[in-house]
Amino acid sequence: MKHPYRIREIAAQAGLSEATVDRVLHDRPGVRPSTAREVHQAIADLDRQRTQVRLAGRTFMVDVVVQAPARFSATIRAALEAELPGRRPALLRARFHLLDGASPRDTVAVLGRVARSASHGLILKAPDVPDIVAAARRVPVPLVTLVTDLPTAPRIAYAGLDNRAAGATAAYLIQQWLGDRPGDVLVVRGRGEFRGESERAAGFRAELGAGRRLHEVIDAPDRPDAIGPVPAAVRAVYSMYAGAGGNRAVVAAFEGRRYDVFVAHDLDAENVALLRERKISAVLHHDLRVDLRRACHAILQANGVLPGPVRTNPSAIQVITPHNAPPVEF
């Protein structure tokens, strides 16, 4: 695999020793396939971050650990890599650990590797479970939680939207659309380990009140058909988490039946398309680039590069409809 990078640069990006990288690049025996994949992924990351690699100045390596479906992890990667060239006065590079369909045990293992690597900061999106919190405590660098918080972990800041307010916003929109018409609400969520989803659910229930019946479905990260048939009384959908099948699987679960309102989260390519097709009524969006900009800023502050105290400043909630959806998919 041809590349313009020094072994030292690849080793730093991969979090491996120079000797291990040398063995992979020269096809020497004694290297596990997973290690070879990490080296090739590091070279791909360096290709995308090429503008940062050759600049002079002190370089800070930030590890990004994300437990999420691949489509959301890809959105995070793209948002951060778009932000890196503007992070000054220091140079930032990112090392990505994107875990699609992973268990908490997988995330704990990755955090263990990060703890042993030469890193200057950690951006973490993971479930709020004891093993992950304990593993995060063992990482000796500034920690910023992303999108979903781990308040008992030693994080210096949280970067993301106010999830409780987002859930309340979804309930408000559904009530406004349905008005006085009867109708139950389908709530699609994950397995409940992510604090952000629990906060969205709490805000949603508080704003919706007791006037409508809720049907809660736990979507699966590994089963596109996890939604199943939808009760006939359902007239509205709040999708706070879409698993392996995405929101198209939620739409398909209605089997041609009509619903009056569908509120979802995250302005990814699939949701933009569903907005244009008028199959989603509104998407609650927050700018991941802003979130990641704030996360990087906090890490640089914690490393003494930028002045001022580190603060958490939740992102604004943007309500996107078919009329203000972006002109191109991303």
Give a brief rundown of this model.
The protein has helices at 7-14, 18-25, 33-48, 50-53, 70-83, 104-115, 130-137, 163-178, 195-208, 246-252, 269-276, 288-302; strands at 59-67, 91-99, 121-125, 143-146, 157-159, 184-189, 214-218, 234-239, 261-265, 282-285, 318-320.
Describe the structure.
- The chain is an alpha/beta fold and 330 residues long.
- It has 3 domains: 48 residues, Orthogonal Bundle (434 Repressor (Amino-terminal Domain)), CATH 1.10.260; 133 residues, Response regulator (Rossmann fold, 3-Layer(aba) Sandwich); 123 residues, Response regulator (Rossmann fold).
- It has 12 helices and 11 strands.
- A 6-stranded mixed β-sheet has the order 7-6-8-9-10-11, covered by helices on one side. The protein has a 5-stranded parallel β-sheet with strand order 2-1-3-4-5, with helices on both faces.
- Helix 1 packs across helix 3 and helix 6 packs parallel to helix 7.
- The protein is elongated, with a radius of gyration of 21 Å.
Which segments are poorly predicted (pLDDT under 50) over 5 or more consecutive residues?
A: none
Query: What class, by secondary structure content?
Result: alpha/beta
CATH level 1 name of the largest domain: Alpha Beta
What sequence of helices (H) and strands (E) makes up the elements?
HHHHEHEHEHEEHEHEEHEHEHE
Report the sheet-strand fraction: 15-25%
CATH topology name of the largest domain: Rossmann fold
- Largest sheet composition: 6 strands, mixed
Tell me which CATH architecture of the largest domain applies here.
3-Layer(aba) Sandwich
What is the number of domains? 3
Shape: elongated
N- to C-terminal separation? Answer: 29 Å
Number of strands: 11
